[in-house]
Structures are given as structure tokens and as C-alpha cells.
Known about the structure:
The chain has 432 residues and is α/β, with parallel strands linked by helices. Helix content is 43%, strand content 14%. It contains eleven helices and twelve strands.
Amino acid sequence: MGAKRALIVDDSKSARLFLARVLEKYEIDVDSAETAEAAIDYLSSNRPDVIFMDHLMPGMDGLQAVRAIKNDPRTATIPIMMYTSQEGEVYLGQARALGALGVLPKQIKPTDVSKVLYQLHLVPDRRTNEQSSFTAVDLNGPQEPPAGAPRVLTDTTLREHFAELRRALVAGVDTQTDRITAEVRALLLESLPPPAPPPTPETLPTLEPPRGPAIPWPWVAAGAALVIALASMVLAWRSVLLLGRLEGEVARLQAQALPAALAGAAHAAAPSAQSPPGDATGTDSKPIVVPVPYGAEPLGGARLDIIRQQLYRLARQKGTGVAEIRTFAGRFCLIGSPVEGYSPAPEETLVSRCDLLGNPSEEAFTSQRTPLPLVNLIGDIRNSTHGAFDVQITAGDPASVLSPYPPAVSYLTAGEWNRAAMANNRVEIRVR
């Protein structure tokens, strides 16, 4: 099967480039047209697998273009996805009545594009019906990782590593200081005049003391001491920089290992059908952690399926209580603009060059509005338990993180920062 092809119709060059970069990540060839008229001319000799059509363009607008494409038998079957800054069911109804597959917001998110591609079967759907179980991870105490799971760097392990690093750095500074002191001492000995021969009776009467200028040995010794001190300071400064880099690297490794360790621990500790209710993972102190990919709805999509499974399980096992669902937004290093949208910066980008250090989707994590599917789910659980088991939605404390963000140093990269942000972008379920 040949490569899939998409046509982007938009008068904005930046919008075309942004959408093209998203599509090319899925190995989809991209053609573009600046006007609807140019798109119709393109379709006279080409047949793309999908068309992304902007609404407002000079000349023929997007709705008129959709009507023209759908009225032509040669192009009527090509799926068209429109995107616009307008909102409301009226515009959506007009677009679908003319034959458009749907409408996306003007600030297109990569996740929206991936959903369209999956729906049209233009990329293989890597999602499965089997959903991994998520379980609580006690972050306050030691926990043995399951066999085969990555080992999380504990505080004790980190302290041991840093102690060894400090001992090695101090030993290195002492060695360099001794070496410099020995070299300065050797230079001083070479610069000293040779000792005078002992006087003899023959030479004593005629021996004259030297009248030349005296060598200021105190100043020479002071200068040597100053050189040693400066060299030691330089070595100490280099050691501090090296220790800072090592700490950043350890933090990066910890952020990289934490999500995998959480998933491995959740999979190994998931209760089986035969487990007694006392083995349930939803307790007051151990939350169920549900990771949220960047740009995804925290309480929608695959997360809603996980929340549904966990709430029904907890309602069966607990019988009574309150399940509190908390949403936590990670802070990402992003590039882009409010008009064209943001995306995670490449890993090698310095954090100081990020256009935004935050989360454009943070409103979805802190909003008081509950999605309708989740409202229906909560109502069903309350009815099935006759009000004995309730569910509450709250926004978590932004200061509560699973993976600490690395120190903000000048050489910190977006890859190091975003690994911690991905671990902190999450939903937690607690039962009390």
C-alpha cells in the first residue's frame, strides 16, 4: 500500500506548515493550496485520502468549497474535515449538512488530528480494547519494584550517589592542589641562588658581601600562595559545576524511570478476580494514578475508560465512601504562539528558549465543569449504590508533583524538563 496523502486548504502559510508537520509525523504526504479555487483545480487531477479545509478564505470560502467538492461525483467520496474559529452547533450542522466529516477548532491540536486519522483508518490504530490497570504507588515510603520493572531512584539511593560524587570531587581537588603546590615549590627552589661556599682563612679577609638588590622573598612566597589559592578556587568552581550537571542528570533519569516504574508496579500489583476486598488499591493514602498525555482531556478519552473501570471496582469493593478525583496539570516546555498553537519543544532545545513554560490545557484540569459522560457515570454509580458511594471532582494542588522538575540551570534542555512534566500531568483517584 502506497503512502497516504492529505490536502490542506488554508490561506495562512503558518497554519499550513503547522498542520503539515503534524501529519508528516504519521508518514502522510502533504499537499497544500492557498485558496479553495486552487484546491478544486488540484482535485481535477489528484485524489488525496483526506482534505483539511479552512473556513474563512479570500474568494470562495470553506463551506462553498465543500459544497462544490461533494457535488462532483469524482471527488464526492473524499472525506473533508473543516476547521474554524467559529463555535456553535449551527455551524457544525451546516458543515455536516454539506458533507463535511466534522469541524475542528482553529487552534488544531495534534491529538485532534490523530483522532481523525484513526477514524479514517489512515494510520494503524495502536490502541487496544484491553486497558492496563492502574494501582496506587506509595510515594512516601520504600517499595520493592516488581520483577522486571525499572527501579525508581529512592532518596536513600540518591544520597548515596551524591555522597560518592562529593567524595570523588573533594579527592580530585586535594590531588590537584597538592600537585600545584609541589610545582610552585619546585619553581621557587630553582629560582633561589646557590648556597655560598663556606669561608676559608684565605678568602675571609677579602670576602665582600653582595651589594646587588635583595630578592623580595616574602613577596615571592605571597605570590605563590595566591597562585595556589586561585587554582584551588578554579578547581572548586569546576567541581560545583560538575556536581550541578550530575544532579540534573540524576533528576532526568529519575523522571524518565518514574512513569515506567509506575506502570510496571501497577500492572504487577493489580488485584485479580479472586483477590479479597482488602487487597484493593484504592485506600485513603494510596491514590490510583492515571497519566494524561500532553494536550489530552484529563477526564475524557482513554482516561474516562480507566476512571469508569476503577470507580465501578471501588464501588463494589468498598460499598460506602467517597472517591475523590483530582486533576494535576504538568508544566511543559513549549514552542509556538497563542494563535498557531503550542507543541512540546524538541528535546535538545534549551529551556531558556521555550516560548511558554506551562500548559495551555490547564483550564481543563482546573475547570469546575464536569464532562457530560463523567456526569452520567457518577449518577449511575450513585444510583447503583443508593447514594452510599459518591464521587467528587477537584483540582489538585499544582505544588504536588510525582517527579520533581530539574534545577533551572542554563544548560537544562526541554527533554529533561518535559519528562518530569509528563509524569506530573495526571489524574489521581483517592477513596476516603
